[in-house]
Design brief:
alpha/beta; TIM Barrel; nine-stranded mixed β-sheet; two-stranded antiparallel sheet; 7 helices; about 35% helix; about 20% strand; globular
Length: about 260
C-alpha cells in the first residue's frame, strides 16, 4: 500500500494554471499526501483566438521526472475525450511513460461546458442525456484511460435552476456510464471540487452507491486544484464517501493501480 494521493492536479503545463511544482509539493507535504500532476490535453478545443489546452509531453517529463523520484509525485495527463481526438489521444499517451491517464468530458458539440453560453437555449434533460451518452461512448473508445474524472462536471457551471446531475432523474444514463467503466476496468474519480456543500455530497452519494452495486470497487480522489490552496480540498470528505460505500481509494504509478493506506 502507499500513502493517500490527490490524483488530479494542474501546474503551469496546463493552459489555465500557473502553479509551480515546488509550491504544489510543499502544500501536499503539509497535508501528508502525495500528488499526481494531470495536465490538460484537449485536442480540437473550440477556442478561436484563445489558448490551446495542449502541452509538450517531452518537456513536461524532462522538467518533472527528477521530482518524481522521491515517490510522492506521479506524472499524468487529463485527457479530453472527443470523437475527433481519439487517434491523437492514443498517440499522445505513447510519447512518454505517463504514470496515470485521466479521461474527461469538457465539451458537447464542440462547445465548452465551462461557459454559461453553452447552456443557452438548451433543455436540461436533453443536454444531460447527451452528456452521459457521449461520456459512455468515449469511455469505450478510450480503453487506455485509467480513470474517469468528475462525472458531475456539467453541473459546475450549468445555468439551469437545478443544475445537479440527480441520479434519480438520469439513472439509466448514469448506469450506462458506470457499466462502461466497469466493463473497461476504468476507475471512477471522486472529484472534491463540489464537496464543500452538502448538496454536492448528496448528489454524488447515489452515484457511488450504484457504482458499487454494479461491481465497481476502486476510486481515485482528486481536487482538480489549479492553485496551492486547492490541493487536498475536501479530501477527508471524499474518503468518507468512499468508505460509506465500501470503495477502495487508489492511485496509479507506471499505469499500475496502487491501493492507498487506510
Amino acid at each position: 500500500m502507499t500513502m493517500f494521493f490527490d490524483s488530479h492536479i494542474h501546474t503551469s503545463f496546463s493552459a489555465d494554471s500557473e502553479m509551480r511544482a515546488e509550491e504544489a509539493l510543499a502544500r501536499a507535504e503539509e497535508q501528508g499526501i502525495g500528488l499526481v500532476f494531470t495536465e490538460h490535453l484537449d485536442y480540437d478545443y473550440p477556442s478561436a483566438g484563445k489558448e490551446q489546452f495542449i502541452f509538450d509531453p517531452e518537456a513536461y517529463w524532462t522538467a518533472y521526472e527528477p521530482l518524481r523520484a522521491a515517490g510522492n509525485l506521479s506524472l499524468g495527463v487529463e485527457m479530453g475525450m472527443m470523437a475527433s481526438a481519439r487517434k491523437k489521444n492514443a498517440a499522445f499517451v505513447q510519447r512518454v511513460p505517463f504514470d496515470f491517464v485521466l479521461g474527461s468530458i469538457h465539451f458537447l458539440e464542440c462547445k465548452d461546458l465551462y461557459y454559461p453560453e453553452t447552456f443557452a437555449g438548451r433543455e436540461k434533460a436533453e443536454m444531460y442525456h447527451e452528456y452521459f451518452i457521449v461520456m459512455r461512448d468515449e469511455i469505450y473508445a478510450h480503453p487506455f484511460i485509467d480513470a474517469l474524472a468528475h462525472i458531475d462536471y456539467i453541473a459546475r457551471n450549468a445555468t439551469f435552476a437545478h443544475p445537479e446531475i440527480s441520479y434519480g432523474d438520469f439513472a439509466d444514463d448514469i448506469d450506462a456510464v458506470l457499466r462502461a467503466l466497469i466493463e473497461t476496468d476504468t476507475v471512477i474519480e471522486i472529484n472534491t471540487r463540489r464537496l464543500s456543500a452538502p448538496r454536492g455530497i448528496k448528489e454524488l452519494a447515489p452515484v457511488c452507491r450504484r457504482y458499487r452495486e454494479l461491481g465497481g470497487h476502486y476510486v481515485t480522489i482528486g481536487s482538480d486544484a489549479h492553485v496551492p490552496q486547492g490541493i487536498g480540498r475536501n479530501y477527508d470528505r471524499a474518503r468518507e464517501l468512499a468508505h460509506a460505500f465500501d470503495l477502495t481509494v487508489v492511485t496509479f504509478r507506471e499505469r499500475k493501480m496502487q491501493i492507498c493506506e487506510a
